[in-house]
Design the sequence.
């Protein structure tokens, strides 16, 4: 911490030390830095700066915490010509991400009975927790091929969602370059019956109320109205993505790519190597699987709203879907020259600003929506990207844990966690007591402070604060 | 004479079930594996003997699983005790040898001990109970055995240690901002793997059925790979709360002479 030097509002420089190819950059306010255990994650920021071809800075977001090799809440861009790609820089849950949909009805207009029925209906139709999958026959190899090639469009063709959804998904729900031939049978086996499931850990489906608007013009452009109902979905590529990551970590290590690195989990291969390209092709498959997973989950939630509240699924509009564990090729101007970079975002969200070519028309003039889930009690946030190239147009992805799972479990052991949450205005269903205890609001940093830091640093602006009321946890 | 009802035993640890069928169930902290039952004996005499007692050869608690229920005495039409049978994950020979060594030692000290073949088990409950209910309720769970104690039977299914020989725990769950983390201990790579899987199985008991024989382990990476195979298999078969074990950390030599490894697990 003592080595950090404040260079701009909510922006600290971690000066280059021996072995680091670039300096580190930490986005945080003084208050956040004082509150978090920063030394271990900073060591990881430093380690990432060793990686071949890294450009700019090794970056940490205000929700940074210790990860595998790379910190969670980390961003690193590698020169696409001579840099490396790292499975640990993407994370196990490839394309873990968040999607936000808007329901055309004020939350307070739902009766208590309706809310309970809605929660129960979603809990029933969206499997959550360990070992819960759909009873269907599962994905065939042909399905996997199509998912890899078409991304989220595959689900829409199967009747899960609407054509217009596509324009409201990062990269239109498709990471190009996917090749199912790069994915192991084990990975396919793990993912076969998991499409449309939340999983365990910190994944969730949340229904709540848009509590406060900060930027009325942007909110109006996106049809985000105070008091109205929102749906927030947090899930990723499930066992499929985890196995892809694991398979390539094993292969990279076996190929000797971890030699000389300060941490084996940082293992990386040159982007242009055969193994590097195969990893990218497999990672893209997992990313496309995750887009489909969230597409299916939203479909089931829309169905629940139809069944319980009579709301036409077509009227529940997908606002946006973002990835926060991904490596993507993006082009930036560096020293007056266009450079293609492989941007690793691990626990970080792309935050393109207005005018960005890749954005759909709905967001070209406003900038990209950035969703920041907080905790299941206090709040989540909707922000708008500012396209700040200092962080390769990246922002934070959540509140970040403040307590370990063990600490949280100990603190809540034997207590009525559901009752406590109910007192906070949150009805909760979860596959296990342990999950709830480990995910209690005080296990997380205050998301309000995290998004304030992001805004102060000029990465994204706050658009709306979202208050959860109905939560399904994995 | 300061007479007490005493026995030597090993402390048992397991992710015990939260509920049980009807029966007089022992409190978790009182569960143990009896090594040598002394009966009502003079405490002063045993206190004099204890400094000479052979100590266990192992430094780290021994990993095992409960693989079946036992109703004791065996073949009785009205068993009085429900116990769970212990199946060792790796060789239980050190403990079996130690039990014999301890028995021989105590016999030499003129204690009258039961000479029936040693049956590794932990008593869970006493009569009255229904055998069928307990059979139906039983599920294999992992366990380990750590400190050796001289226990005093206080009556009412309460057993209190009055002397102890400490043995390190095979693992400890530690606080970590990562998903979950453990310090795992082992005297060699094979034991490190066993104890790592044991740690995971304490969180998700069904994982104990995915214990593989560890052979040809030459580095920490091999352990991580093998553990991930267990996770993969369990996740494919029944869903597993763990997604992967990270290639993280180094083997450290503890002052007590065994390896320690910080295992980080993604959930």
Sequence:
């Amino acid at each position: 911490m003592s080595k950090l030097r404040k260079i701009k509002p909510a922006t600290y420089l971690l000066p280059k030390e021996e072995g680091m190819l670039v300096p580190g950059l930490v986005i945080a306010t003084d208050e956040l830095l004082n509150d978090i255990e920063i030394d271990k994650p900073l060591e990881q920021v430093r380690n990432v700066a060793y990686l071949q071809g890294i450009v700019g800075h090794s970056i940490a977001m205000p929700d940074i915490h210790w990860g595998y090799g790379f910190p969670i809440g980390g961003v690193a861009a590698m020169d696409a010509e001579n840099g490396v790609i790292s499975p640990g820089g993407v994370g196990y849950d490839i394309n873990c991400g968040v999607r936000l949909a808007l329901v055309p009805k004020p939350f307070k207009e739902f009766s208590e009975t309706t809310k309970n029925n809605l929660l129960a209906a979603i809990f029933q139709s969206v499997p959550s927790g360990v070992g819960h999958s759909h009873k269907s026959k599962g994905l065939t190899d042909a399905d996997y091929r199509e998912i890899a090639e078409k991304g989220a469009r595959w689900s829409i063709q199967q009747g899960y969602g609407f054509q217009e959804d596509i324009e409201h998904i990062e990269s239109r729900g498709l990471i190009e370059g996917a090749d199912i031939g790069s994915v192991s049978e084990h990975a396919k086996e793990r993912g076969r019956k998991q499409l449309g499931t939340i999983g365990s850990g910190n994944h969730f489906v949340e229904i709540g109320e848009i509590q406060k608007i900060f930027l009325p013009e942007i909110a109006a452009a996106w049809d985000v109205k105070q008091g109205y109902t929102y749906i927030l979905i947090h899930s990723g590529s499930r066992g499929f993505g985890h196995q892809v990551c694991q398979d390539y970590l094993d292969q990279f290590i076996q190929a000797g790519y971890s030699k000389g690195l300060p941490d084996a989990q940082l293992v990386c291969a040159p982007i242009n190597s055969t193994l590097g390209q195969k990893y990218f092709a497999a990672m893209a498959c997992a990313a496309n699987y995750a887009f489909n997973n969230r597409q299916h989950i939203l479909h089931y939630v829309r169905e629940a709203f139809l069944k319980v509240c009579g709301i036409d699924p077509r009227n529940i509009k997908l606002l946006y879907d973002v990835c926060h564990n991904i490596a993507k090729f993006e082009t930036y101007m560096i020293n007056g020259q266009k450079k293609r970079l492989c941007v690793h975002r691990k626990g970080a969200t792309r935050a393109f600003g207005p005018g960005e070519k890749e954005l759909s028309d709905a967001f070209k003039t406003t900038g990209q929506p950035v969703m920041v889930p907080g905790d299941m009690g206090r709040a989540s946030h909707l922000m708008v990207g500012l396209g700040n190239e200092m962080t390769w147009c990246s922002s934070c992805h959540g509140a970040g844990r403040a307590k370990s799972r063990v600490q949280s479990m100990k603190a809540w052991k034997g207590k009525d966690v559901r009752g406590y949450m109910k007192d906070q205005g949150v009805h909760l269903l979860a596959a296990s007591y342990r999950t709830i205890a480990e995910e209690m609001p005080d296990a997380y940093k205050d998301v309000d402070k995290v998004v304030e830091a992001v805004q102060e640093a000029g990465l994204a602006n706050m658009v709306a604060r979202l208050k959860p009321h109905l939560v399904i946890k994995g | 004479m300061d007479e007490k009802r005493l026995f030597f035993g090993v402390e048992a640890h397991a992710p015990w079930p939260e509920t049980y069928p009807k029966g007089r169930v022992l409190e978790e902290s009182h569960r143990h594996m009896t090594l040598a039952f002394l009966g009502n004996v003079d405490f002063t005499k045993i206190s004099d003997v204890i400094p000479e007692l052979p100590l266990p050869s192992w430094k780290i608690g021994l990993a095992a699983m409960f693989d079946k229920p036992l109703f004791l005495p065996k073949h009785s039409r009205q068993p009085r005790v429900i116990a769970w049978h212990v199946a060792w994950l790796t060789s239980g020979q050190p403990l079996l040898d130690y039990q014999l060594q301890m028995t021989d030692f105590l016999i030499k000290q003129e204690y009258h001990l039961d000479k029936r073949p040693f049956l590794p088990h932990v008593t869970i409950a006493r009569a009255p109970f229904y055998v069928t209910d307990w059979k139906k309720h039983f599920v294999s769970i992992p366990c380990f055995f750590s400190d050796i104690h001289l226990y005093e039977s206080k009556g009412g299914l309460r057993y209190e240690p009055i002397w102890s020989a400490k043995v390190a725990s095979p693992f400890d769950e530690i606080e970590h901002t990562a998903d979950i983390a453990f310090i795992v201990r082992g005297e060699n790579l094979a034991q490190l793997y066993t104890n790592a899987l044991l740690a995971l199985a304490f969180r998700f008991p069904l994982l104990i059925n995915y214990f593989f024989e560890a052979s040809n382990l030459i580095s920490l990476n091999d352990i991580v790979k093998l553990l991930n195979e267990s996770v993969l298999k369990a996740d494919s078969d029944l869903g597993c709360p763990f997604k992967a074990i990270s290639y993280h950390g180094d083997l450290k030599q503890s002052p007590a002479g065994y390896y320690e490894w910080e295992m980080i697990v993604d959930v």
Observations:
- The mean pLDDT of chain A is 94.
- The interface with chain B takes residues 37, 40-41, 65-69, 92-93, 129-133, 186, 189-190, 200-201, 239, 242-243, 245-246, 249-250, 253, 258, 263-265, 267, 401, 404-407 of chain A (CB under 8 Å).
